[in-house]
Automatic annotation (TrEMBL):
Requires a divalent cation, most likely magnesium in vivo, as an electrophilic catalyst to aid phosphoryl group transfer. It is the chelate of the metal and the nucleotide that is the actual substrate. Keywords: ATP-binding, Carbohydrate metabolism, Cytoplasm, Kinase, Magnesium, Metal-binding, Nucleotide-binding, Potassium, Transferase. One of its GO terms (cellular component) is cytosol. Its EC number is 2.7.1.15. ATP binds at residues 181, 210-215, 241-242. SUPFAM superfamilies: Ribokinase-like. InterPro entries: PfkB_dom (IPR011611), Ribo/fructo_kinase (IPR002139), Ribokinase (IPR011877), Ribokinase-like (IPR029056). Catalyzes the phosphorylation of ribose at O-5 in a reaction requiring ATP and magnesium. The resulting D-ribose-5-phosphate can then be used either for sythesis of nucleotides, histidine, and tryptophan, or as a component of the pentose phosphate pathway. Residues 5-284 form the Carbohydrate kinase PfkB domain. This is Ribokinase. Its cofactor is Mg(2+).
């Protein structure tokens, strides 16, 4: 039986300018190169899922009736994603304005546009779907409705709680997996004093916290898994988290164990950080496998020990 993942969420066109550093409030910085890239958390995760291989990937998205929609659709289709597109003639396609610094940091402002047109009734049939992957660049009421429908249909639900916001207990109750970074954990878990407390406060069977260059940790019921990051020289961290999410869910959908999925997702995320752009940076299955097959690049025991010490769980 073919494994199928449905991603429901945002799609944007990213306007990216490179500069020496990200501007401080009130500061004007003279930029350099300018490019546009297909992006948006939902679309990035769908592309990552499709390129990870082994799982049929579908996406529910909303676009405007404008030229900004075309490169987004092309990128998704070229990656092998099957589209369920809501077309809104009143709202423009979502956009994001990104300043990328020379040290690979970024500052992002999103204009959601048509992404806010996704409504509960737009969810396609869930027959054959194993996982539903959600984010928070769409209306929260729709995210909750999709999660409820998936739970009723016996579909597993993963939420990447980004951008960060407080989540109703009713939504958390629908989830099989919650994926957050440290900042998002602080918001969702009510500013816990440490990682252990944050994990304890979230009543979700599996919670994964990404820790940037350190790696990630997962709490599955009462069991803790640690996955150190791969060592790289980052060029652009845009979509690194989305690459992690999409690759992770693809691995789980095709029957992989969580520890193996965390390893593959970390490898894909590391590769994405070495390239410019959002979807343009996401590696395919062969590239990830090549990195995993290179024993000299796998995180060693020292990296595991350092991550464990830093987490202090």
């Amino acid at each position: 039986m073919t494994s199928t993942v449905l991603v429901a969420g945002s799609a944007n066109l990213d306007f990216v300018v490179r500069a020496a550093h990200v501007p401080a409030p009130g500061e004007t910085v003279l930029g350099r190169e300018f490019q546009t890239f297909p992006g948006g958390k939902g679309a990035n995760q769908a592309v990552a899922c499709a390129r990870a291989g082994g799982a049929e990937t579908r996406m529910l998205l909303a676009l405007g009736a404008d030229d900004f929609a075309k490169p987004i659709e092309t990128s998704l289709i070229d990656a092998g994603v099957q589209l369920h597109t809501v077309r809104d003639a009143q709202l423009p396609t979502g956009t994001a304005f990104i300043c990328l610094s020379d040290d690979a940091e970024n500052a992002i402002t999103v204009a959601p546009g048509a992404n806010m047109a996704l409504q509960p009734e737009h969810l396609p049939a869930l027959g054959g779907v194993q996982w539903l992957l959600l984010q928070l660049e769409s209306p929260l009421d729709s995210v909750l409705a999709y999660a409820r429908a998936a739970r009723t249909a016996g579909v597993k639900v993963a939420l990447n709680a980004a951008p960060a916001q407080e989540l109703p207990a009713e939504l958390l109750a629908q989830l099989d997996m919650l994926i957050v970074n440290e900042g998002e954990l602080a918001v969702v878990a009510g500013n816990p004093p440490d990682l252990a407390t944050g994990l304890e406060r979230l009543d979700v069977p599996c919670v994964i916290v990404t820790l940037g260059a350190r790696g990630c940790l997962a709490r599955v019921d009462q069991r803790i898994l640690l996955q150190p990051a791969f060592r790289i020289s980052p060029l652009d961290t845009t979509a690194a988290g989305d690459t992690f999410c999409g690759t992770l869910i693809a691995c789980l959908a095709r029957g992989g164990a969580l520890d193996r999925a965390l390893l593959a997702a970390s490898a894909a995320s590391a590769l994405a950080c070495t390239r410019l752009g959002a979807q343009s940076s996401i590696p395919d299955h062969a590239e990830v496998n090549a990195l995993l097959a290179d024993a000299t690049r796998l995180p060693g025991a020292d990296a595991h020990a350092a991550l464990a010490a830093w987490c202090a769980l």
